Amino acid sequence: MQETIDPDLALFAHVVTAGSIAAAARRLRLSSPMVSRRLARLETRLGVVLVRRTTRRLELTAQGEAFYRDVRGILDAVEQAEARLTGAARNAAGPLRVSAPTSFGRMHVAPLLKPFLDRHPKISVSLDLSDAYVDLLADRIDLAVRITAELPPTLEATRLATSRRVLCAAPAYLAAQGVPPDIASLRRHRLLSAGGSLPWRLSVGGREALVTGESVVRTNSSEVVRELAVAGVGIALRSLWDVSGELLSGRLVRILPEVEGSLDVGVYAVRPRAAFTPPAVDAFVAHLRETLGARPPWER
Questions:
Q1: Residue 90's pLDDT is what?
Q2: Which residues contact 229 (CB under 8 A, 6 or more apart)?
């Protein structure tokens, strides 16, 4: 495996993955000074600084990040070759660290874990929920769920579903403020949006329209936006995966039914591009595709 290549390259990868020299030393059953000396020897040989050493953790330099991606590709290729030789690729096992947006992860990823673990008992899952941007390499994430219209070319992406978004408000708000008859009239209403989500790019009969303005309540939480809309504070542009239950129950009402958010937005499973993808990652992507499918639960 990693010992079949330059041992100092493998050690560097261990240090990055572990997050500190001490943690890497424990995994490799070496002393911390020995790991530190070998890392310094590698940097001297290459003539660059790969990591910045602080009292609490290691931080990769720009050269270190690029070098780690290359080293990781070499190690992945070696593991892939061994997996083909031994048949290990058929056995999904080991740790799997998954990241997802807070609300989507709680509502649509967490409920899928039990059937997944029942099917793959040798996989141990770590699920991290955050609405902040997650750097997959820096945060050691194997797979992330992202809801977006654009993805960087450095990521391998599998489209899981379209994320349809609709305009909605509580019946109490509409009774008090009136139902907007068209997009232009939205500017006279109280709008609700998480930070960075306005202006809204809307699709009307194949044409795009832009709605500008400011949210009546400032928040970084999409879940707060949903709860404010249910409480009757204003009008929100929400994903069906987020509010389909409220629309069915009548707690929210869709307005301007001919209008939707941009259809370019999709739900993706993304992972760093590498020569070898761990079987556990492939298994979880397949599980997500099977469960969400061509018609995800919020569209049924």
A1: 59
A2: 168, 169, 170, 173, 192, 235, 236, 238, 243, 252
**58 CB-side CA count, 13 A:** 24
A 10 A CB-CB count for 300 gives 7
Instruction: Determine the Cα–Cα distance for residues 106 and 295; give it in Å rounded to an integer.
Output: 20
CA distances from 226 to 89, 198, 203, 268 (A): 42, 15, 21, 22
Q: Give pLDDT tens digits for 112-135.
A: 999 999 999 999 999 999 888 888
Closest by Cα among 29, 32, 31 to 20: 32
Domains and CATH numbers, the chain: 2-86 (1.10.10.10), 92-163+265-299 (3.40.190.10), 165-261 (3.40.190.290)
What is d(CA 139, CA 99) in angstroms, rounded to the nearest whole number? 10
3-state secondary structure of 79: helix
Which residues neighbour 37 within 8 Å (Cβ) at sequence distance 6 or greater?
none
Reported confidence tier of residue 275, pLDDT bands at 50, 70, 90: low
Angle separating helix axes 32-46 and 21-28, nearest 10 degrees: 110
Instruction: Write out pLDDT tens, residues 193-216.
Output: 998 789 998 988 878 889 998 999
pLDDT in tens, 64-122: 888 988 888 788 777 766 666 555 545 788 899 999 999 999 999 999 999 999 999 99
